[in-house]
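User: what does the whole thing look like in 3D?
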Amino acid sequence: MAENQRPTSILESLGEEIVRIVTPVSICMFMVVILVSILNPNSSSSYASVGSIATIAYNESSSDTSWDKFIGALLNSLVFVAVITLATFLMVLLFYLRCVKFLKYYMGFSAFVVLGFLGGEIALFLIEEFSIPIDCFTFLVALFNFAAVGVLAVFMSKMAILVTQGYLVLIGMLVAYWFTLLPEWTTWALLVALALYDLAAVLLPVGPLRLLVELAISRDEDIPALVYEARPVVNHDSNPRDLVQRRMRVWRERNETSDNRPIAVPDSVSDGNVVSESNVDEIETSNSNPIPIISTAVRAEEGEVHPIRNTELLVPLIDNGGNVQPHGVAEASGSNENLMLEGIGLGSSGAIKLGLGDFIFYSVLVGRAAMYDYMTVYACYLAIVAGLGITLMLLAIYQKALPALPVSIALGIVFYFLTRLFLEVFVVQCSLNLLMF
Amino acid sequence: METLQNPNANTNSNPNTISSPIRVLWPTIDGSLGLSEEESVSYARRFYKFGFALLPFLWAVNCFYFWPVLRSRSFPRIRPYIVGSAIGFGVFMAIISSWALTFSIGGERLFGPVWDKLVMYNLADKVGLTGWS
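Assistant: Here's the predicted 3D structure for the full assembly of 570 residues, as structure tokens:
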């Protein structure tokens, strides 16, 4: 029983979970590819030059040498990552100071800007492209409706899950399309830099995203950020209340193992792959630790083998797990929002969460590939989905927030260049000699 | 997998036995993940009121979100707002679509030179909205 407990929570429903997270990612990528192929049809070499923070250090022009472009792109991506890091630390600070209201309004404002201005801009591009005879009143009313409802759906209130998810995908699509307007070398450098940043920010003990997630868990709050949350998997024969139990199962199990049977825990832990992570956890204990008293108590009780992250995950539940059970359905379904484990990368609870940044940069990769050829689009899409699948498998193994960018972006870039350099030559030769197609 | 369910079986069975005799009807389309009836009343009322601020799409979302309320008559407290939203959305859509259709089909023959000033792509060109920087 001991070794069954940990991985099955996700593995048993992994197929369904993967479908539920891959579908919106695919929709987002598909829409970006359509936008790119409609709006910039001949832009493998020519691109609109966008003045933004991503091109603050260097703006690429086609006359530059490759080395210049490389250095410039590197500088751009460094500046961009530095800005993102600063912004994330600022967000952690604000979250730490409990300015959740301010963060929420700021996020709502930025969502409104993205939906209203970027959405309006792209809608105008489409209107010009197809010469749709729409008048300005209708357009403005529709845009205002679209943006306002989007802000409400994403941040300000509860809304139908489908509407919220749809708006998140749309925001991802708009931002991703905007990123594809960056110069080519900058885009690639940015993607690599962000994958590395994601890796560091989620896994390093002082990484800003990790701090944010741990803070949110220890406070038992939602992070006010753009996070796509997949609808949790429901069995058809289960009644609604099962669902609530199901979403909290990961929590409940750990709660029980540590509360009732502390002696059994070292066995179950040492069975898994925690041995390989134990040194990481040692570093973590010496460093930032939000709840020092409780975790040291647990460690003293169970010895060094118990990973500290389990105890951290437990802590918010110890006071909550008791009072959720006897309450009514309504309250449980309301409060289990707070009980879920948050992760910017991927959360390891009943419902998988994927940060919107991951959506955006997957789509940027695919959109950039669409500027070259559709063959690279297919290759990149498959590579990204495979990377997402690998990340989900890793999630099932490690059961903590993981960065979703590195594997997918690495695979995507590798496959892009492989396709561009090798597969294209092969396919062109094949079709020229009438072997294929 | 069976052994996994065992420790939870006793915790699951207790609430299940309470809820299973009552056929739970949820006011929102998300079922158990959505809102309870108490919350639904305030949300439906708020969406309905906000809709008057030129937000007919919010009315549409309201109808979509509380679709079970619109279908069945078992939520008398929420239903007026949803029906109101539906009517409001219908009226607004009728007005604006008739105007937009008249505008796009009638075109320059109907409106004369004003049409060129009102159509969105000309206006965007004039104000300079289509450049990114």
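In plain terms: The CA atoms of residues 54 and 80 of chain A lie 6 Å apart. Chain A touches chain B through 62 residues (CB under 8 Å).
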